[in-house]
């Protein structure tokens, strides 16, 4: 019934378009895109993800002894290999890697009039030079260069299927009514990507009210559909309407010349049980931007609420699962986002950013996700970058991204300097903290019984970037980061090794 009503709505909106006489039937084709080649060098002696279990520690002494015995066996086996003249299989707990990749983005729009437009956007890459180092094609049919936007790059595998569709939608434009409707695969984004920044299939509607100086946008994104699964092979779908949908509504207002306000709400209705979790969550946000002659600032707050039902194993004293139950968790979390910019002159500005969420990062003492309790903040599908290593999604190392930014706080100072005409230099210093200290009672290595203590200090980072605008359509970008880890990061990763992560890369990009 809902689908029928939606179809009737689209017909009622779009029918007047086709009843009007077109001024021209010539097909208009517009395109844009970019070519990019990037060289990267990264190095670290710190883990990027946890390697030990997060289940409760039943017998610390026994687990410690098992770890000692396991390490001793690995060393003994390696010694025997060396005696036979074979190379060692034990590698240092550090890395220094250089690699190169290339990428192509291409977007096209087709239209025969002013009311309907079709958009297709595709991507090839990032294709690494020499491939991804996967094993060779085997008798089991495995082919490391078969599919995916990053496929290819290895000698003899340049014909891999590596085209990815980013956009594929129809844009219904009614300029007389200031109404725009997009149907298909498109980009869905919230204010600065703090709640949602992802492509997906769905419908978005934009309506401008110029006399009120505001605009409204709403829509629905079908995030996942599992309604067609037939696991028992009886010829019928196992579940009806087993899917995950995201609904949203946002209103932008510009009542004053130097003030912009946005109120929004995102709703997740997820009844897909295939991943052991269902949820009904909401994110309510207020984004306020103030611009003045010499300074500007942003005040942004998000409130997260709802319920999560998660399949939870019950474990006995021996660590054996004896039953699986579904537990209901009430979510009440929040995110704050503050940014300040002071413009010294046209060539120099100073910036401060503070971004954080409530709750505890990682897992609790029972081995469950910590953001399910204690005012934890659940993320939807955000996409944002604060610094080059600590919180990033643009390439190289990244300790966290928008989706894992729960129970964390990052503060930073950075300055942009425009010098010698086309050059822009950026210097930045950032600190990463946990809202509540990560749980240490589930650790095997960096643990209390080994003499360590938990903390909230995750580390600090230095950034240095250069942007050189060679021409209006060609630029060279250098980005670098140097992160020094703190004790809270070692608690979260359950690791006692290393201290530093570093990265640097140079990008050559041509836009058209």
Automatic annotation (TrEMBL):
The keyword Signal applies. It comes from Leptospira idonii. Residues 1-19 form the signal peptide. Keywords: Signal. This is Alginate export domain-containing protein.
């Amino acid at each position: 019934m809902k689908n029928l009503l939606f179809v009737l709505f689209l017909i009622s909106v779009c029918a007047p378009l086709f009843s009007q006489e077109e001024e021209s039937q010539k097909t208009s084709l517009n395109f844009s895109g970019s070519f990019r080649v990037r060289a990267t060098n990264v190095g670290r002696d710190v883990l990027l993800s946890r390697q030990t279990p997060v289940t409760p520690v039943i017998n610390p002494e026994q687990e410690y002894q098992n770890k000692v015995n396991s390490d001793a066996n690995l060393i003994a086996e390696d010694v025997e290999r060396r005696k036979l003249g074979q190379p060692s299989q034990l590698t240092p707990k550090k890395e220094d890697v250089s690699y190169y990749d290339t990428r192509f983005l291409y977007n096209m729009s087709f239209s025969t009039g002013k009311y309907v437009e079709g958009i297709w956007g595709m991507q090839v890459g990032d294709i690494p030079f020499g491939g991804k180092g996967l094993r060779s094609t085997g008798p089991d049919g495995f082919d490391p260069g078969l599919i995916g936007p990053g496929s290819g790059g290895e000698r003899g595998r340049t014909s891999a299927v590596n085209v990815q569709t980013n956009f594929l939608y129809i844009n219904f434009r009614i300029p007389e009514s200031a109404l725009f409707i997009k149907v298909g695969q498109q980009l869905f984004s919230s204010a600065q990507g703090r709640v949602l920044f992802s492509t997906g299939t769905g419908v978005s509607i934009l309506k401008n009210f110029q006399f009120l100086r505001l605009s409204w946008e709403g829509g629905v994104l079908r995030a996942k559909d599992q309604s067609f699964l037939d696991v028992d092979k009886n010829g019928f779908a196992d579940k009806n309407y087993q899917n995950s949908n995201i609904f949203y509504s946002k209103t932008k207002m510009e009542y004053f010349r130097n003030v912009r306000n946005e109120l929004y709400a995102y709703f997740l209705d997820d009844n897909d049980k295939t991943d052991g979790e269902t949820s009904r969550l909401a994110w309510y946000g207020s984004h306020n931007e103030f611009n003045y002659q010499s300074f500007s600032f942003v005040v942004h707050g998000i409130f997260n609420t709802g319920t999560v039902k998660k399949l939870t194993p019950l474990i006995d004293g021996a660590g054996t699962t004896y039953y699986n139950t579904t537990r209901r968790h009430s979510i009440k979390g929040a995110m704050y986002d503050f940014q300040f910019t002071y413009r010294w002159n046209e060539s120099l500005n100073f910036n401060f950013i503070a971004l954080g969420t409530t709750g505890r990062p990682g897992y609790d003492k029972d081995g469950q996700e910590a953001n399910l309790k204690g005012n934890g903040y659940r993320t939807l599908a955000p996409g944002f970058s604060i610094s080059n290593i600590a919180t990033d999604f643009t390439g190289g190392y990244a300790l966290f991204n928008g989706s894992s930014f729960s129970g964390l706080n990052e503060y930073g100072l950075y300055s942009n300097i425009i010098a010698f005409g086309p050059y822009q230099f950026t210097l930045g210093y950032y600190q990463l903290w946990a809202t509540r200290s990560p749980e240490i009672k589930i650790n095997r290595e960096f643990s209390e019984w080994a003499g360590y203590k938990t903390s909230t200090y995750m580390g600090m980072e230095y950034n240095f970037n250069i942007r050189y605008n060679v021409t209006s359509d060609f630029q060279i970008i250098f980005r670098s980061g140097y992160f020094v880890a703190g004790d809270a990061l070692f608690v979260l990763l359950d690791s006692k090794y290393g201290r530093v992560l570093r990265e640097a890369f140079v990008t050559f990009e041509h836009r058209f």
